[in-house]
């Protein structure tokens, strides 16, 4: 997945306060979810859909065309990996798993007594079929590794790999939907079907669908009991006429669950006591620098001292206040989240980036590297002025604001910065091919919170290419470091925590020194809730699931089966 598509999936575009905005909700009452005359309880969810829904509930469509509840609500994986906090995977269709010593055999115990939403039994044969379907289909298997799953007992599936594959664990156990063999074995191309009659094992099933809204109802055959069983009878998904209407929908009680960046959220919460929110920061906003001259990068940003100077020249408190409305979190120069990954950050010095500018430090780094301050207030070296350009997508208001603020902050440190606002496609193409000096983007978590996924995607030499050629992964900075490459390879072949920790230290020591990505802050990831009709939503102190109701987030299924209707 490209960095730009991931970045924008981390929130609906900035939502302005629109208290007079008109909602366009098909069949949506003014009070959102409710208890009907028949006693049916419901909640209303806004997943960011602007305009009509296109009916697609195919969990194997890896282009992201499926509708939000497909993964996690209608279909389930074997385990749930919570990106919002550190912890062990939550058992779903699997109950336990274990690796052999060299990471070539993964044994999974499969939950017994599970039924599909059509009432038929879900078995280990379905698990084997689902996993092998992905392995054998190049359009579905993006890992580059084929595996073979076999049933060895009614409650046991053994997955065999050709080489050490510890790092495939969260992908296979936590990101592959289990589908009924009786249905999918009759489908010639599993990537293209829209699956308008979904049959899954999730807590809810499809009840009705229109282009403007659709309704899910409790799955009467769901395997969960007690706290694991859904209690709200129906979940209604709505679309809005435009993104601005999200604020009005929340305040008017026309939605119970959504995930939008609302700049005035704190004020909204203060005026509406039934509302609450949680913030689950997941991605580090950073200046991506084309830093590797040996691969064709050109410009002052190829100088390590310049990248270090920018790191110290930032006033991140101002950036948070004016660009993120105070909802961002301090980043770590290790590029890991200092909340979820605190134990994997190997030095106290790497825990948090400076929050205020240290202009003297920035200037001293430049001067020690031979840069001299000119009469115009900007540094120069060997006849080249310290003049940089940063690319940013026009309309990404928070990022546009950061760039504008950095112009003044960097000027104080003798660094000239020009801002190049671009259309998204052009911005993405420039970053992928390395035809840029700096680019405003974010470093995103992979399929789990394991640092391997970030480090291999953003730092490995194998994940980049010479300027002019598209980077095969997300290392668009062209960063290449032999010590980092060796440490990433070590992470891919071990399950020993002490060995991993040593590899993390190697990587972090190098990237804090080299600074290919200059971290700004950790993006907010806000979810909003209405507590007048249901309670038990995630809170800041209890993020039992990553709650953002966007496509591909398995955590929404956990949230919807955890909440309880207000009596």
TrEMBL record:
User: Which Pfam family, any one, appears in the UniProt record?
Assistant: SBP_bac_5
- Matches recorded under SUPFAM superfamilies: Periplasmic binding protein-like II
**Where are its TM segments located?**
none
- Provide the GO biological process annotations: peptide transport
User: Which positions make up the signal peptide?
Assistant: 1-20
Instruction: Please give the PROSITE patterns that the UniProt record associates with this protein.
Output: PROKAR_LIPOPROTEIN (PS51257)
Q: Which residues form a coiled coil?
A: none
Name the UniProt key words of this record, in alphabetical order.
Answer: Signal
Gene3D superfamilies xrefs: Dipeptide-binding Protein, Domain 1, Dipeptide-binding Protein, Domain 3, Periplasmic binding protein-like II
Q: Which GO terms describe its molecular function?
A: peptide transmembrane transporter activity
| Alphabetical list of InterPro entries matching this protein | Peptide/Ni-bd, SBP_5, SBP_5_dom
Residue intervals of the Solute-binding protein family domain = 88-462
Would you tell me the Gene Ontology cellular component terms? ATP-binding cassette (ABC) transporter complex; periplasmic space
Please give the PANTHER family that the UniProt record associates with this protein: PERIPLASMIC BINDING COMPONENT OF ABC TRANSPORTER (PTHR30290)
User: How is this protein named in the record?
Assistant: ABC transporter substrate-binding protein
Q: Native species of this protein?
A: Humibacter ginsenosidimutans
